[in-house]
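Reading a protein record of the kind used here takes little practice once its layout is understood. The fold follows as a row of integers, each naming the local backbone shape at the matching residue. With these conventions in mind, the following record can be read line by line:

_____
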Amino acid sequence: MIAEPAHTDKHAVKPASMLGDLAPRVASGVVMIALSLVTLKIGGFVFVAFWLVAAIAVHWEWQRMTGGPHEQIRMVGGAAVIALAAGLVALGSRDAALALLIGGALATLAAVSGPTRVWSAAGILYAGALVFAVVLLRMSIFNGVESILWLFAIVWGTDIMAYFGGRLIGGPKLWRRVSPSKTWAGFIVGVTSGSLLGVLALWAMSVTIHLGPVLLLGLVTGAVAQGGDLFESSMKRRYGRKDSSNLIPGHGGVMDRLDGFIAAAVFAALIGALRAGVVAPGNGLFVW
């Protein structure tokens, strides 16, 4: 065996493979972006159903990854709880939807034994939080559609530009133990780009904003999205997985694609609701 040169970084991206997975990523990304935008424009049942399917897929991947007893029961029961919660929040019964998600998690915690019981229960909250947050934002009586488009711009911009920034600039690793491929350069480029794209999206939609607070909120939201990505990476490392599944070519599973979006959506919905109430979280994000 030929010894590896002492100066070689075994985690460095090889030039020949630097952008080798770009084609399937782009193709999958275009399809997902198109579906997200079309269902957002249609709204109503179609919008809720689209994100409910995504949430159930996330829950399915989570339960498969964590393992443990009664896997099929956990999958079906959790999916039923998430579906009912999605219906409740869509009808305006937000407190009931939240109580149902918490109750479903507690029931799972009580019914499942073994070392994975807490993680199994957390899967319902994680997946349910996705559909709860996006429906809450979309139903905002002011800036509902705008809040989702702003969120798309930030998360997509952060994700795409972090990918290119990390691959093309390189440099010190963000958190090598959890995600060896992520760099500080990618993080900074991604978060900055995402925040700027968010502002440009609002200007394109003629939303009146105060630039400073919204730009800062975009930076924090982009950072939260990157934190969501790192959380899922740490979870996969915990369970020895490369991807959450192979449902999406070039991206792995639905969790792999939505990890950052879930964190950012929950954060945005929370900030918006705290500032302007649950009926107008969109205003809470943009009116300062």
Residues 176 and 221 are 22 Å apart (CA to CA). The chain has a mean pLDDT of 89. The chain is about 70% helix and 5% strand. The chain has two domains: 25-139, 143-288.
